[in-house]
Specification:
The complex is a heterodimer of chains A (379) and B (72). Chain A is mostly helical and 379 residues long. Helix content of chain A is 70%, strand content 0%. Chain A is built from 20 helices and no strands. In chain A, helix 4 packs across helix 16 and helix 12 packs across helix 19. Chain B has 72 residues and is mainly α. Chain B has 2 helices and no strands. Chain B is rod-shaped and about 90 Å long. Classes of the chains: A mainly alpha (379), B mainly alpha (72). Chains A and B meet through helix 7, helix 8, helix 9, helix 14 and helix 20 of A and helix 1 and helix 2 of B.
């Protein structure tokens, strides 16, 4: 190659970089042409493009993507700031009208732990087929939280080698919830069960309850599972800004400016972590397969508890809303609403499903904190 | 012909390492199982307590008087 090889990027293209450039193109295409999570996939795809240009240096030490990664991902600042925005966007009223749905959220976290067990079994735990340590397995399991910021927070805190793949899997499967969940729900619930109507909520939730909810949640979760405090704290801080009614400017800033700016930075930084040599490994493919298993197990566990609630309540709970216990909000609620309407054209389950879905948001954060608490105890 | 002492030592060492590694693997998977069981138990406990507190708060700080009439 000679001297030209030192400054011409295409002379330094490896097969890994080429494959990653194609993947970045697919991500950008999915975002723009197919409108699959464009807010995330476009910046992630572009970050991936930048980081795989040979000699570009964007993701190498001192490069701007590496600096962003150091400042925002390794310090866990980006996911936490995103949570303030998410908290300010979420209306917890449907959940507060049916607080029992939090148990569906709890059950739907089984996907995290089931997948963790499976990943560890395939890795260092027993079979040694893949290079999955206990921390890696826990980080892979957390894809089942169906929550991008929680996945980033846990994977980076546990210093998993697969953080980039885990984050991409978590975000892309959230967009694929309408494909993953319906066949599982249909296989588990008969048409009669899917057609089951649920009574509407008793009444409005008072302003006092809405203000007390974020404060009480931080106290209860923080005191019982302290490792979840940063995540639940930021989520509930954002929600307090929304509900207290006296800081509308801050609430709007959290929902718009803060969330948008951090999403841009987070997306491009995560894309920057997808360098060919790190990303193209058999383990990465397994991370994606385990991600689907995590989402499926979440759905199965949620629907099973939904069925139990259906029996115990004398058929007042549609078991399908158990599938909304995952925190993929609002995709999961829409899936259940659609399936409900297919089975019975007068069966509107959107609000009930949204209750379980927002409960799942809280539950997934608690699950992330619990994972961070338990894993170091057993390392 | 009786086995030579150094051959016996080698066999014993291999057997010891094999048994030890099996034992270690079993203990690793047992730890993973504990994480699964404890994890789910803690999640249900934390969220169960949160549910109880929220039901209580809903009763104590629920809509009163004018707000309740508006709801009706």
């Amino acid at each position: 190659m000679g001297a030209a090889g030192e400054f011409l990027g295409f002379l330094n293209l490896t097969w890994q970089a080429t494959v990653m450039l194609v993947i970045s193109g697919v991500l950008i295409w999915l975002g723009i042409a197919k409108k699959v999570e464009p807010v995330l996939l476009v910046p992630i795809g572009f970050g991936c493009l930048l980081s795989n240009i040979p000699l570009g240096g964007a993701a190498e030490e001192g490069g701007f993507l590496a600096v962003l990664s150091e400042a925002g991902i390794h310090t866990e600042i980006f996911p936490l700031l995103i949570f303030i925005g998410i908290g300010a966007m979420i209306d917890f009223e449907p959940f507060l009208q049916r607080p029992y749905t939090i148990l569906l959220g709890a059950a739907a976290q089984f996907g995290i732990f089931g997948t963790f067990f499976l990943a560890y079994l395939l890795g260092d735990g027993w079979l040694h087929l893949l290079d999955f340590s206990l921390q890696d397995a826990a980080s892979i399991g957390i894809i089942g939280s169906a929550d991008g910021p929680t996945s980033i927070y846990v994977a980076t805190t546990l210093q998993s080698k697969y953080a980039a793949a885990i984050v991409v899997a978590a975000y892309s499967y959230m967009a694929m919830v309408p494909i993953i969940q319906p066949p599982i729900i249909k296989a588990m619930c008969s048409k009669e069960e899917r057609a089951l109507k649920m009574p509407s909520a008793a009444g409005k939730i008072s302003q006092r309850t809405k203000i007390l909810f974020p404060i009480i949640t931080v106290l209860v979760v923080g005191l019982l599972a302290p490792k979840a405090t940063p995540l639940i704290g930021c989520l509930m801080f954002g929600n307090l800004l929304r509900e207290c009614g006296v800081v509308e400017r801050l609430s709007l800033a959290a929902q718009n400016e803060l969330a948008n700016i951090v999403t841009i930075l987070l997306g491009i930084t995560v894309g920057g972590m997808m360098s060919g040599t790190e990303f193209l490994r058999p383990e990465t493919i397994l991370v994606f397969i385990l991600g689907i298993i995590a989402f499926s197990l979440d759905t199965v566990a949620g629907v099973l508890l939904g069925k139990l609630m259906c029996v115990l309540s004398g058929k007042k709970v549609n078991p399908m809303i158990g599938a909304c216990g995952i925190s993929a909000f609002p995709m999961s609620s829409r899936v259940v609403q659609k399936l409900g309407l297919e089975a019975n054209p007068y069966n509107h389950l959107l609000m009930q499903a949204a209750g379980a879905n927002t409960a799942g948001q809280v539950a997934s954060v608690v699950a992330g904190g619990v994972m961070l608490m338990l894993v170091p105890m057993f390392v | 012909m009786p086995a030579r002492p150094n051959a016996l030592t080698a066999i014993t060492t291999v057997l010891y390492h094999h048994t030890n590694s099996v034992r270690q693997e079993r203990s690793r998977m047992l730890n993973a199982l504990w994480i699964v069981l404890l994890g789910m138990a803690i999640i249900f406990a934390v969220l169960g307590i949160l549910l109880a507190v929220m039901i209580l708060i809903g009763k104590l700080a629920g809509p009163r008087g004018k707000e309740e009439k508006e709801n009706k």
